[in-house]
Design brief:
9-stranded mixed sheet, about 25% helix, about 600 residues, binds manganese (II) ion, alpha/beta, binds ligand TSX, about 20% strand, 16 helices
Amino acid sequence: MTKNQKLLDWVKEWAEICQPDNVYWVDGSEEENQRLLNEMVEAGSAVKLNEEKRPNSYYFQSDPSDVARVENRTFICTEKEEDAGPTNNWMAPDKMKAEMLESYKGCMKGRTMYVIPFSMGPLGSDIAKIGVEITDSAYVVVNMRIMTRMGKAVLDVLGDGDFIPCIHTVGAPLEPGQKDVKWPCASNIDDKYISHFPETNEIWSFGSGYGGNALLGKKCLALRIASTMANREGWLAEHMLIMGITNPAGEKKYIAAAFPSACGKTNLAMLVPSIPGYKVECVGDDIAWMKFDEEGVLRAINPEAGFFGVAPDTSMKTNPNAMLSLNENSIFTNTGLTPDGDIWWPAIGWDCPDGTITWKNEKYTTGSDVQIAHPNARFTAPASQCPVIDPLWEDPKGVPISAFLFGGRRPNTVPLVYQAKDWNHGVFMGSIVGSEVTAAAIGLKAGVRRDPFAMLPFMGYNMGDYFQHWINIGANAPAPEKLPMIFNVNWFRKSDDGKFLWPGFGDNIRVLGWILDRVIGKVDAVETPIGFIPKKEDINIDGLEGQAELMDELLEVDNKRWLDECELIAEHQAQFGDAFPKELKAEYEKLKASLK
Ligand code: TSX
Ligand code: MN
């Protein structure tokens, strides 16, 4: 096991608080994994899928109240409220801990406490971090085994070193003789807490079994806690995919890209190019940790080992490489379950078989009006099974990043692609990222929800200080000429009659190709007030019928619309007060002046 005294003391302390029936140290072996899965099948919380159709794969239905991250129950607990900033829920650490400790007392009665040592990032990488999650959920254990490097090997690397303690419970103790439910969780939303203590690097999660709330390595550690560590230590922990792109001449560059949810980040990360000769390879689909190396090159690792992706709308058409990644050794949560023991979700590419069981365990008969999969139904699949996983995806040094991409769903105003004039302008670009949502849903006059750097739900500290951190990364870069170039893309621009102007998906390689040409220095661009846009003829649209006539509108920069946009940007920036960097204020003033 381990001789790490801090770890042993910490586990003992929490076992005394939570009072589990027993404590089990997870070793990460195949045999252990099978045993846990079999136990869950026998207990009725998991279904083993058809071994012929989907080998070694399992199906789960959550409680209907426990289907997503709970943003209004997610807290950043710092001594000073201003250190959490205006975009986070805040509570003082002492108050939060006192309140939560009351709930944790005896919360694991009748259950097993699992201790999961895990590494975010390749074992032993300089950029990787070790965490230990305590949980009373076997579902969490089998998911963590896919999403992280987990088990005994991690304890060996940890030695007597430091780790990030993560405590999780579903918050549903069992009385003696009480029968368990298939998905235990706290019954009341106000009993759920996803709490972060960035000043002491601790994570306390209570009451939910859902991925983002319970697999604490992912959003809690790799983004919220890591972003604050990165701020202290001068590196970057970002909500970004990492992909390699090779052009027909065999030149390969890596880019990292941030998009708000529902923009198709996973689809982009493993895209199948529609132009022969190009190749896309995937390093990661969600999180990037980046540091400068000795040569001043910014290098990125994917701290995860799997994909925890939205299932609905994933198909051989929209994302064949994701579909092939989940052929086996995968976990499905809140999809439909077909009579022949396979999974189904809307737009999977075939009709839903009669007799399919819905995520709420109802029976679907052809034509009946039931929701078969929850819209946030998920697959958990090993990244190693992705057919286009990059050969360097587990390289402990990370991959060199040549460009950053930002983007969102913008039906107007924002062109298909534009390039920042310099680093600070690119940081400004990241700070104004936004995506269209139904205006009614968020009570905004314009239907744009700002999601700076796509980090809004995942920030561990004050967003204004985070912007300043990005400015400082550029200002202190060891080799400024090696800083990544920064771009913004918009696959979602629409014509006045509401039709998408760009085919998207595999055809996005046509835009990535231009970005690659800019990085290599092979192509000129046109300067506009918002940045550099492509010359029309430099976006390859060969074979796209009717596209030529749409390119002017797709690349248009309308000064009048951008002046309106400036008003919205100013409104958004106002909330950051003193923490807002003067450099970004200056970028805003420059933009506004150049639009007049
Ligand atoms: O993922 C998407 N990407 C990125 C792909 C690499 N989606 C799906 C978004 C929801 C997750 C897209 N949707 C993309 C896109 O580039 N573009 C669109 C918009 C669109 C939708 C359908 C069509 C075209 C554009 N269909 C036809 O034209 C037939
Ligand atoms: Mn994400």
